[in-house]
Amino acid sequence: MTHFTGKVAVVTGAGSGIGRALSVELARRGARLAISDVDLAGLADTEALVKAAGADVRSDSLDVSQRELVLSYADSVAEQFGAVNLVFNNAGIAFTGTIEQMSFKDIDRVMDVDFWGVVNGTKAFLPHLIASGDGHVINISSIFGLFSVPTQSAYNAAKFAVRGFTESLRQEMLNEKRPVKVTCVHPGGIKTNIARNSGQVDGLDHDELAGAFDKLRAHLAPQGRRGDPQGSREEPTARADRCRCLGCSTSSCVPPALATSGSWLRSAGATVVGKCDVRAGLAVSRSAS
């Protein structure tokens, strides 16, 4: 899809960060928007920005982990706008702690939002995307959906699952010749609120973890940028037929950036040794065409 004028775009997690930046940019490009979040104050700010850009916008409180609510929401959006062309499954949370330290409830919550939220949004809107004749589903994974790090096992698991789910969907849409493109996005060092809004196991200092993540984000951001999702109009880079570590010969390495910006990881007693020398920006799987 090369133009957005008049297209109907759905963005979850639109109250801040990538979701807000997507919403504002889509509004500037003439899209009609359905935005949602559980952060109502942040969502109201995004709605104001979108309206200032002149877009037609619907704003809803939505917990993407609640399947029946997402299914009802999808039908309501399609009925109101008459069609749905783009769905950005962007909502996500994080939680810091080792597998030994975390409870099952901690892991379940991350999986419910970060993986099942994507599944819910994809399944709920897919019939409407197909019916539009010009659909595109964009699922937000993470650079942590390409390699794993200690203390982020639940987040890693969810984001790896998003990648596998989305790649399979892409193949299915191609095989069935459905009019739906499919893209999986792997943001790297992006300035969002996910770390500051995340949870952690007892004994870890929230502010210290958030500060360490900010340093990590700056280190991972593309050269010459600070990873601000609203600070650039650059198009995402498509990395087709590349290894999972974006240039490394092994699928299990961790870029040295993670080792050298390491209080976030070292707080859990981790030693990270990387083999690949890639500065992560925004990696995007090929979309169906």
Give the topology, please.
Elements lengths: L7 E4 L5 H12 L3 E6 L2 H13 L4 E5 L5 H15 L4 E4 L5 E2 L7 H11 L1 H17 L2 E6 L12 H23 L4 E8 L11 E2 L5 H15 L16 E2 L17 H5 L2 H4 L15 E3 L5
Parallel strand pairs: 1-2, 1-4, 2-3, 4-6, 5-8, 6-7, 9-10
Antiparallel strand pairs: 7-10
Structural commentary:
The protein is of the alpha/beta class. Helices cover 40% and strands 15% of the residues. It has helices spanning 17-28, 40-52, 67-81, 104-114, 116-132, 153-175, 206-220, 256-260, 263-266, and strands at residues 8-11, 32-37, 57-61, 86-89, 95-96, 135-140, 180-187, 199-200, 237-238, 282-284. The strands form two sheets. The chain has an eight-stranded mixed β-sheet, with helices on both faces. Strands 5-8 form a two-stranded parallel ribbon. Helix 4 (104-114) packs parallel to helix 6. The longest helix is centred in the middle third of the chain and has 23 residues, at 153-175. The radius of gyration is 18 Å and the shape is globular.
Biggest sheet features: 8 strands, mixed
Distance between the termini: 9 Å
Strand order of the largest sheet: 3-2-1-4-6-7-10-9
- The overall strand count is 10
CATH superfamily: NAD(P)-binding Rossmann-like Domain
* Mean pLDDT over all positions: 79
Which residue ranges are poorly predicted, with pLDDT under 50 across at least 5 consecutive positions? 232-287
Q: Helix proportion of residues, in percent?
A: 25-40%
User: So, CATH architecture?
Assistant: 3-Layer(aba) Sandwich
* SSE order: EHEHEHEEHHEHEEHEHHE
Rg, Cα atoms, Å: 18 Å
What portion of the residues fall into strands of 2 or more residues? 5-15%
User: For the record, what CATH class applies?
Assistant: Alpha Beta
- CATH domain topology: Rossmann fold
The SS-based structural class is: alpha/beta
How many distinct domains? Answer: 1
Helix count, DSSP H or I runs of 4 or more residues: 9
* Anisotropy-based shape: globular
